[in-house]
Amino acid sequence: MTLLSRLFGVRPAIRHPVQGRRDIVIPATDGVPLLATHYYPADLDRPPLVLLRSPYGRGNALDQLPKLLAERGYQVLYQSLRGTAGSGGRFDGFTIDPADADGTLSWLRAQPWFGDQLATWGASYLGLVQWELAARHIPEWKIALIQDAPSAFAEHFMYPGGAFALGNALGWVQLVDTMFSGNFSLPRQMLATFTAGRKLRRATLTLPLEQADRALTGRRVSWFQEWISNGRGQAYWERTDHRANTERMPPRVHLQGGWYDFFLPSMLADHARLLAAGREVRLLVGPWGHGRGLYTREGMQDALAALDAAMNGDAAPTGVRVFVTGAKRWRDLPGWPPAHQPTSWYLRPGGRLSREEPAPEASPSRYRYDPGDPTPTVGGTAVSRSAGPKDNRAIEARADVLTFTTAPLTEDVEVIGPVRVRLHARSSIPDVDYFARLCDVSPRGRSLNLCDGIVRLNQPGGIRAADMGAVDIELWPLAHRFVRGHRIRLQVSSGAHPRYGRNPGTGQPLAEARELRASEHEIFHDLDHPSALWLPLTPGAS
């Protein structure tokens, strides 16, 4: 029995003996050879097949999932995408060659051991390829199990709010470079982690940015160059946008995300589109960062229940199940977002946050942002093991960060749904960012981040700066209970480095900017300029 089966409490009712065939060659339609491993229960004839397609190698820790599935009575075809782990062709970042899927499906249908039931499974890139797979009609496809992967890649990963997600972009460049240069060897990857943090920090401060990939890996990375040369809304990103494939997704879809995953807002939009397309959808959102939910007891059990039901023609749980942080418990919801009342919490002088409307006159709060010493960030939605909730007190003590905090709460406040902030702001230069982060402050003063968002002003096709205008920031959604005695805090700043690349303030192209320009900021909070945080208060909550 596999370690995962024991660890996550998913021991099979009947344990099947598992056999495997390695380095099977599957021709893509353009002739490129793709390598795969085939796991199968030796005592079953043509059982259902689960297809996993990955750029992250085979023969490593990721093989534990195929073995778990095979001992439960499923065949698993675990394929390496082109340009990875021995497969031919060239790897091209998040651009997926359709010849891979076309060739794989044709090859599968010609195999005597392939029946008429197909499932797909995978997190992150292994989920993205499932959205691309739906570019074609596949009658054998019964269910897609997708973790932390949206149909449209760029919006919340690459340019959220118009700001370039530098830390995530370079973090993924480093991950792929380590895997490829180490020939997918797990020991080599572990060894590389000792110097990875230092190299990444140095690369994120490189100017101009077009040299950052070389500073990190010692070579030019073609797809990173494309990312920094093609801003938000450029035609380049259309090749990574698979939203039009929603109508060809299988009858059942299992979506799993995390409150600290950078893809979550896009996945919630996918959930709505799939329901509108008549699909049976299960949505599970846990207290995890990117890619971590799959290997949890709750995530594994829920996904396997959906897979078994789809392949057996049985009913499975649908609807929405979320983990309410703060309360530390799961809650079943009829849909997303649940019924809620957007409630305003106003920014006040002296760093206060209150439900009371602002006074008619109040002096603005001020700070200075210097991209030469960019405002840092910790935790949150990062491509890093440090993602998630972290203590923010060191950052909140900086002069370039404003905080607005409530008095200790006299009752629990539970919020589930979307979060937004409106700032009435004035800056000394037009090319600036505004970053907002929501935190839960304990009675001992520990400030844990819950969600955040950013907006870059003066970008082509984006928000234009005004002399003093309203800036709207969409934060990540959440499900959280602020318990009695805790305080609600909102951070306001003009940077969150390296999660978001620093705004040089000069208006120069992202890839080419060499100069850095500091800026002065005023955040207004009087009756005529009521800067505020809106939280989704759940019905019946305090």
Automatic annotation (TrEMBL):
GO terms for molecular function: dipeptidyl-peptidase activity. SMART domains: PepX_C (SM00939). Residues 344-390 are annotated as: Disordered. SUPFAM superfamilies: alpha/beta-Hydrolases, Galactose-binding domain-like. Residues 304-534 form the Xaa-Pro dipeptidyl-peptidase C-terminal domain. It holds the Pfam family PepX_C. It comes from the Bacteria. Keywords: Hydrolase. InterPro entries: AB_hydrolase_fold, CocE/Ser_esterase, Galactose-bd-like_sf, Xaa-Pro-like_dom, Xaa-Pro_dipept_C. NCBIfam families: CocE_NonD. This is CocE/NonD family hydrolase.
